[in-house]
């Protein structure tokens, strides 16, 4: 990879470096936590090898899930000195699964909206980020 020549290219290169470092440490920790906490999964025991689904989803109503998610987001945002943050929300793709003891019977749209609001509040109040 050639060395960056403009300020923007240098900043992008630095962000990529920081992000790679975080993923090597925190990303591994996040995957380890997911394995330690299968109860965070919205569909525990279903979809072996993720066949038939887009991706695994965490249960937004699990009482401990946000502690882990918030720690990861904070680490990433601080390391990258973020002024904005994109939350893709594909981690809550499956909601109100009939086999989830916390979400079953709930309205998926309300669960999704609640999770968006929860993550927005975290980012807004802890980092004062631009949340357009």
- Report the sheet with the most strands, covering strand number, pairing sense and barrel closure: none
Helix content: 40-55%
Query: Low-confidence parts lasting 5 or more residues at pLDDT below 50?
Result: none
Based on CA atoms alone, the radius of gyration comes out at 17 Å
Number of strands: 0
Q: Kindly report the average pLDDT value.
A: 77
Distance between the termini: 34 Å
Order of helices and strands: HHH
Number of domains: 1
Query: What characteristic shape results from the CA principal axes?
Result: globular
Structural class: mainly alpha
| Number of separate helices | 3
Strand coverage percent: under 5%
Walk me through the topology:
Blueprint: H1 7-36, H2 65-79, H3 108-127
Helix pairs in contact: 1-2, 2-3
Commentary on this structure:
It is a single chain. With 132 residues, this protein is mainly α. It has one domain (7-127). Helix content is 49%, strand content 0%. The chain is built from 3 helices and no strands.
List keywords for this structure.
132 residues, mainly alpha
Put the structure in a nutshell.
With 132 residues, this protein is mainly alpha-helical. 49% of the residues lie in helices and 0% in strands.
